Amino acid sequence: MLKISNLNAYYGDVQVLYDVNLEVNDKEIVTILGSNGAGKTTLMKTICGIETKRSGVIEFQGENLMKVPAHKLVTKGITLAPEGRHLFPELTVKENLLLGAYAFKDKRKINDTYDWVLTLFPRLKERLIQYAGTMSGGEQQMCAIGRVLMSNPKFLMMDEPSLGLAPNIVDTVFDVITKINKEKGITIVVVEQNANIALQTADRGYVLENGVIGMSGSAQSMLESADIQKLYLGL
Ligand SMILES: Nc1ncnc2c1ncn2[C@@H]1O[C@H](COP(=O)(O)OP(=O)(O)O)[C@@H](O)[C@H]1O
Ligand SMILES: [Mg+2]
What we know:
235 residues, alpha/beta, Rossmann fold, 2 domains, four-stranded antiparallel sheet, 9 helices, 10 strands, 36% helix, binds adenosine-5'-diphosphate, binds magnesium ion
């Protein structure tokens, strides 16, 4: 579905990604692991054509994305849930969710997706008229994920969805990631520092270190790898 070849990315003259090669197949969950500053967020932004100067090839379902402007991606089914929640704190949960569908007109489809999002997150359903800024961190993360789902993505990228959340909420978020994938066949790339839960959820993984892809493989083989256990799983 997504094929990245020899991708380089720069902030000004400073290179941050070096010859990244990466593939994501239809309906897969792929995780990208790596320590702080490795370039994970830069990779997400660069795929979307945000902020960096880039060279290389990014193909999505056979189409070259290098010439597609960032604001066109959502209409192709590509959505990024960025690091942090980025909600509108003074809008309600319902208003925040509906904003996720801003680029679409099909009312019936929007309603169906809205109902589905509320079944994924019963907590949001109880809080539709609450201002987003007054909710807990976990609830805000659910709202942020709900909002990106409102755009009906085919290909969803999530940047550190577990960041700053209590362990039980992290479990909820990853359960939802599995459901999104299984129930709607949405292909997911999830960037994480929490390697353990990410590898338990994903089909395959890549490790990014200092802007270079190191190890990659099935999630199972990575969970069993001595290097991964030592460096990322704290075993
Ligand atoms: N807007 C920016 N301008 C310049 N350098 C940046 C910018 N954003 C990130 N960097 C640098 O790029 C490197 C990778 O950062 P980032 O992609 O945020 O890593 P990660 O998400 O893996 O923690 C870091 O050295 C960081 O300082
Ligand atoms: Mg990051």
